[in-house]
Amino acid sequence: MTNISFPEPTITAVSKPFWDKINEKQFYLQQCEECKQWVFYPRAHCPNCFSSKLTWKEASGQGKLKSWSIVHRAGHPAWQERTPYAVGVVQLAEGPSLLTHLLINEQELRYQLPVEISFQQLNERLLPFFQKKGD
Ligand SMILES: [Zn+2]
After folding, report:
1. Could you tell me which residues come within 8 angstroms of residue 3 by beta carbon, excluding any fewer than 6 positions away?
2. What pLDDT, in 10s, does the model give residues 12-50?
3. Ligand 1 (ion): which residues have CB within 5 A?
4. Cα–ligand 1 centroid distance for 35 (angstroms)
5. Would you say residue 2 has pLDDT above 70?
6. Are residues 108 and 123 in contact, defined by beta-carbon separation less than 8 angstroms?
């Protein structure tokens, strides 16, 4: 196949701190200083109490698998060579959920499977994928 590059994440002023930390192999989430709720995806205001006092803090990178799907026909040609692969929703230990690429065999996927972050190089950038805990 020709050399088609993977699509890059869209980085905004609000989400830039998240992606900068990912590139350092660190997983940071916003936490609200008013109500203490953890926030993901990155936002300007807390979705719980609307405070703008959100602080970036290191998160555990741990979670449990909530839902998943096996992709056979990728939404972008660069990903087609990697099919079939799994994507899923991980409920992070801090509370919020994250849609992510899963580095888990189809046979091992199950509800509430403990998972952890795995930083994967794609093009010039690291991306936060998830794997089975302890792999
Ligand atoms: Zn809040």
Report:
1. none
2. 999 999 999 999 999 999 999 999 999 999 999 999 999
3. 32, 34-35, 46, 48-49, 51
4. 4
5. no
6. no
How confident is residue 1, by pLDDT bands cut at 50, 70 and 90?
very low
Ligand 1 centroid vs 95 CA: distance in angstroms?
13
Ligand 1 geometric centre to CA of 109 (Å): 33
36 C-alpha to ligand 1 centroid (Å): 6
| 54-58: strand order across its sheet | 38-39, 28-32, 54-58
| Domains of the chain, earliest start first | 10-59 (no CATH), 61-135 (2.40.50)
C-alpha 24 to ligand 1 mean position (Å): 27
Ligand 1 centroid–CA 56 distance in Å is 13
* 96-135 per-position pLDDT tens digit: 999 999 999 999 999 999 999 999 998 889 999 999 999 8
Nearest to 32 by CA among 96, 88, 79, 80: 96
